[in-house]
Every structure is written in structure tokens, then in C-alpha cells.
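Recall the central idea of this unit: under ordinary conditions, the amino acid sequence of a chain determines the structure it adopts. In this exercise we apply that idea directly, starting from the sequence alone.
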Amino acid sequence: MAPRSDEMASEEPSFLEDPTIPWAIDMDGTLIREDVTEVARDISFASPRHWLTCIVAHILYFSRWFRVTAYRILERFVPVDPSKLTYHQSLLRYIRLHRCNGGIAILATASHIHVARNVVKHVERMMTTKIESTDAKNQSSPFLFDDVIGSHPPQVWDASGHVKAKLIHKRFPDGFVYAGNSSEDISVWNHSSCRAMILVNCPPEVLKQAKRINKPYIILD
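Accordingly, the structure predicted from this sequence is:
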């Protein structure tokens, strides 16, 4: 699916063809359609061997001070199979093109870094399979992501919003492109180091707020 940029524009934004600007890609709702915390919660409900984890997480969830702790417990201790997740194929193609052109890309998620790394490994396996199936000589490396930023207790409990923006800025102080989908991502798009936005499956209100930021963007549905 072709991306949409500004309604008045007839060409894709130039940042898509500039490999010198690193990309940071959100995971839940962006790279994948699902939210891994919700997937882990559903697994914990259905599997007796995860009931204790489920009970502890839900007790913590209903105390607002420990809600983030509940999320991290579910993500870390309830195994989510990356092969069962739904990947945004259009976004994957753009990341791969960026990498083919020599660009840098990282996965930047608020979810536990453990599950994020498993997702990255699965994506790399998918890309390897596709490259082998094409039998082409000049295919790019299957490694789409140079690194992963994520929540990793006790150092970082919640790598979302302003915290995520600071972590990405620390990695790329000269600027970056950020792909996201939710209200939590507004803080990252608003950051002075964010030079362009990839808006993926954004709800109407988030889309409206993102457009007001007045930075180059594309929309991927």
C-alpha cells in the first residue's frame, strides 16, 4: 500500500530517500498490529500454568502506582510467540528500503525489551526466508534493526512518551524519523530531535494532533 503524505503533495516526502537520518520504530500497534501486553494477558487467562503470574499482575494493575509493573511482569514472564503476531507489511518494506540505502533503524518500544528482542529475531528470520526465496544475488541483509530500545526494569520501567523521546534523542542527538501510532507517541514526534513522522494506523484524534506538529510525515494505514 502506497503511503499518503500531505493532501496537497504529489510526491513522497524526501526523508524517505535520505539514509543519513536514522529511523526509530515503535512496536505495539505500529510494527505489529497487536499490543503484546494484551496478548500476554489473554495467554495468562487461558493457560493454568500462567495463572499465578496473571493473579499477581492483576492485583498490581488495580493499584495505579504499580500498573506499569503489572505490564512488565506479563510481558516478561508470559511467553508471546512472535510468529503469531500480525506485522505491518508496508512498514516493513519501507524499513527494508531504508536499510538497503544504508540507513540505520532501531526498534523503540515501551514494552519489555525481552519480548521486543524476540520480535526482532522473528522479523530477521522472516526477512531471511524472503531473501532466500527470491534467489536474487543483490539482496540486502535480513537485519532490519541495529538495536532495540525498550523497558528494562529496574533501570527503565516505562520507556514510553517523554522517556522514549529522551532515550532516542540520546542515541541520535542529530535527529531521527519516528514511526508510531498512539497518543503516547505525540511526545516523541514533538521532540526537537524528531525531524519527520511515520504515522501508522493512527486513530483520528492522534492523526489530527500529529498533523498540527508541522513536520514532514507519511501515513501508513
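The beta strands are 23-25, 105-112, 147-151, 176-180, 194-200, 217-220.
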